[in-house]
User: Fold these one by one.
Assistant:
Number 1:
Amino acid sequence: MELLNRTPFAAERFVFLHEGLEMLLVVVKGTFTIHAQQDTTRVADEQEPVVTVDEYGGDPTTSSIRRATDVVPAKPATDVLLRGHAYTTQRSRTETLVAMQLGTIKKGVRVVGERVWSQTFGSSVMSDPLPFHRMELLWERAFGGTDASNPENVGRCEENPVGRGFRVRGSKLPVDGAMLPNLESLAHPIQSPGDHRPPSGFGPIAPSWRPRVSYAGTYDDTWRKDVYPFLPKDFDVRFHQCAPPDQILPGHVKGGEAVNVVGISETGQLRFTLPHIRPALAIRVGNHFEEPPLLCDTIIIAGERPAVILIWRASLIVQGRVPNVRTIEVKSLG
């Protein structure tokens, strides 16, 4: 099974069982440099590789995903992710706005310098934020977290268990000195230590967090007895969408869509259109060719380079035909 990659992009192929059938998955990952002053993109000299497992910042139970796996069989819609840092226009500034617009996605998040709670005469007071110039956009800096301070009521923020600010009712966590989130909703800022707010972030959601875990299906005794090792019957393919729900575009992008991002580059605003380049696939099985379409279902905007990464994938059922798959050719159509 030879992979013939005729493109400048990274490409990989995988064979695995999907619903009891052997499936061939082809992933193509293209990295494009963004020229902020010209509102254009070009194929990058250095291409990001295909990621085969979720890469966390540390212990998966206490840190967020930095780079999500590219090895998933299908996504019914398009994930749009932001990666990098928020920047203030001046080093004396204490907050900034990170915002993005792409198709139906219009999202803004307030990024604030470090703040802590203090208690004075029984009242909780929020400190003034410290100035900053650069702050990494991580779920660890958004609202969330885990609270095990009260043995009778241990809880966690199911949408972001690695964040900060989450408290259960009857929490024994000290308020004085407790850190506030740096990333927060424009519409729902934190007002008091007990506030629960939707976490605001731009990066991948872990498989064990909501809403992804709600699509994973039911793994009970019936599943173990009758279905294992296959996925449960109520598994929902939306489980593979790793972007926050407000960063998922319906369907798949074609190229040419306008993108506007502010706050994640020292060069200022990033305005560009998605590249029209799209790869094609020809799989030789025995003496004939099959050409499943490569669909772009993931967009990653990396502010540090700056660059935009597009991920296309295609799958083909090859049950009983794996030895007959001779070549997998990836080429560009334009």
Note: The mean pLDDT is 95.
Number 2:
Amino acid sequence: MNEFLAKNLSNSLIMEDMCRRLFLFEFNQENLEEILDISTNLSEPQINHPFISELKKAKKDSKYLNEARWEFNRLFVGPTRPKAVPYESVYFDYHTMFGEKTMQVREFYTKAGIKIKDDKFPDDFIGFEFEYLYFMSYKAINSSNDEIIKEKSDFLHSHPLNWFDQFTKLCIDESRLEIWREFAKFVRLYLENEIKILNKILKRS
């Protein structure tokens, strides 16, 4: 294991894992407990982020968990058009899914050896983008190949950095519950830190 990368990417890996689980698995008690267990390995300031407090509140209060689940569906799923659509193409390709951005992210996945098995969602679904980031962090920590970090940085600048800001703004503006407003701020904190971390690693290599 590369200790330098492990030290710098450990929080990234955890935050990416938490975010991918929110979208790739049903938001229920079991998934919530998994996410909270993972969050215990975060360091400052992430471990004390209000989003973690909101998740703990949902774990203790079944009524709040149900409200959070309904609001999750209203924001990100439907049945009517989601208030904060979790697909990159929608923010660029005339507000449609399966656009040019979908094909671009697929190229990154293919190069990394990732094949999306779930064809219910396009490749630029936020859950898949976080899964790719998580996969690349894991590979980087367990490898001495600097090219992995460069690929991750290229992906981050080509995709998440170009639409997560709009996505999180919609979460903050449209959410009726604090949990999803704080989730948006948690994602913004992740991006802010990730840019600094990847730049630091690339300058060292």
Note: The two ends are 16 Å apart (CA to CA).
